[in-house]
Design goal:
disordered N terminus; alpha+beta; 5-stranded antiparallel beta sheet; 10 strands; binds zinc ion; Alpha-Beta Plaits; about 15% strand; disordered C terminus
């Protein structure tokens, strides 16, 4: 009988020892310490402070009739363990906004513009990243029948340890008589345009840079894709796996928005565009209590009252819905009585922290 080699068994060591420790620890806190210590060591005190104080306070919002909700104040930085979680407030806001602007479409198109590893290694600056994005948008505008689009640049892929910049473009497809399919020659032309542009811009001689095109007419698939593209990418865990030079490059992108809207879906145009179609431009945003600007009980607008520490929240007055939201009993009752009209509850990660 062969020896049983128990050393090859793979398990997460921290999960294994958790129950045997005198004081169990919180993986989020560990990640936070890890990231913020690195930030301090490398002279990013401001960023470290923001991450350390992220979530310590809530803002209290009240409508004219006194219905009240509390929303945690967060730093919205992906490398923050709280904000870099799937379902964080930042992710929810991006996701809901995207649902409002994209989900009405009969067909949702999706193009991924890949870049050779060498481009990531060159650590492109903000201007170069914006140029690449603009080219991707132009390609979509000229080759797909779309009134506008969302561009979100992912700086890493599924793998840890290195950058892998690629551009995602999501867009409604209209005026094609319900067809999402694009002829092969159009796609190969698009691929060629992209390859030429990137080769020229970065002095490369790549044969082909791939672009992937997909489309869907199914609402569930659209939701899934939108949620996936809007998810946090450079999370605390993945940030810490990058070499220091890439960490510093990432932090140098401060102020550069990696999600943008163009055409009729641009921030200054989408409301008018959707209203013309008879759509409510903020319906989904209002469906999620975290992002809703109007009270679900009386539809009056919330107004800012004050900012308080999480420890000061009165448990007799509020019900905690998840990590980020507390509501009073009237709002809670209204939410229970009226599930969102679409029938979809935003199922967010509600694990305690
Ligand atoms: Zn945060
Ligand atoms: Zn109210």
């Amino acid at each position: 009988m062969p020896d049983l080699d128990t050393t090859t068994e793979v398990s997460d060591p921290y999960l294994d020892i958790q129950g045997k420790l005198e004081t169990p620890f919180d993986i989020n806190e560990l990640e936070k310490d890890h990231v913020s210590q690195w930030l301090v060591r490398n002279d990013y005190e401001g960023e470290s402070l923001r991450i350390n104080y992220c979530g310590a306070k809530v803002i209290s919002l009240k409508c004219l009739n006194g219905h009240q909700k509390l929303v945690r104040t967060t730093c919205h930085k992906e490398i923050c363990p709280r904000c870099g979680k799937k379902g964080s407030l930042a992710h929810r806001k991006r996701h809901m906004r995207a649902l409002d602007r994209l989900l009405w479409s009969p067909i949702l198109g999706y193009v991924i513009f890949t870049l050779p590893r060498h481009v990531s290694d060159l650590l492109p600056d903000k201007k170069q990243l914006s140029d690449i994005e603009k080219k991707a948008i132009k390609v979509v505008q000229e080759n797909f029948s779309s009134p506008g689009c969302m561009v979100r640049t992912h700086l890493m892929g599924e793998d840890s340890g290195h950058l892998h910049i690629h551009i995602n473009v999501l867009f409604p497809i209209t005026n094609t008589g319900g067809r999402g399919k694009v002829p092969k020659d159009v796609l190969s032309d698009v691929r060629q345009q992209w390859t030429q542009y990137i080769n020229q811009k970065f002095n490369l001689k790549e044969k082909v840079m791939n672009i992937f095109y997909k489309f869907t007419t199914e609402e569930m698939q659209m939701r899934h894709r939108i949620r996936y593209v809007t998810r946090p990418v450079v999370t605390a865990k993945k940030f810490m796996t990058l070499p220091d030079s890439e960490k510093k490059w990432y932090l140098s992108l401060k102020g550069w928005h990696n999600t943008r809207w163009y055409g009729k879906l641009a921030n200054c145009k989408y409301k008018e565009f959707l209203k013309e179609k008879g759509l409510d431009p903020t319906a989904r945003l209002e469906e999620d209590i975290a992002t809703a600007r109007k009270c679900p009980v009386c539809r009056e607008r919330y107004r800012f009252v004050e900012s308080i520490n999480v420890e000061e929240i009165n448990d007799n007055q509020f019900i905690r819905l998840d990590n980020n939201i507390w509501v009073d009993f009237e709002i809670f009752a209204a939410m229970k009585a009226q599930p969102p009209p679409s029938g979809f509850q935003p199922l967010w990660v509600t694990k305690d922290d």
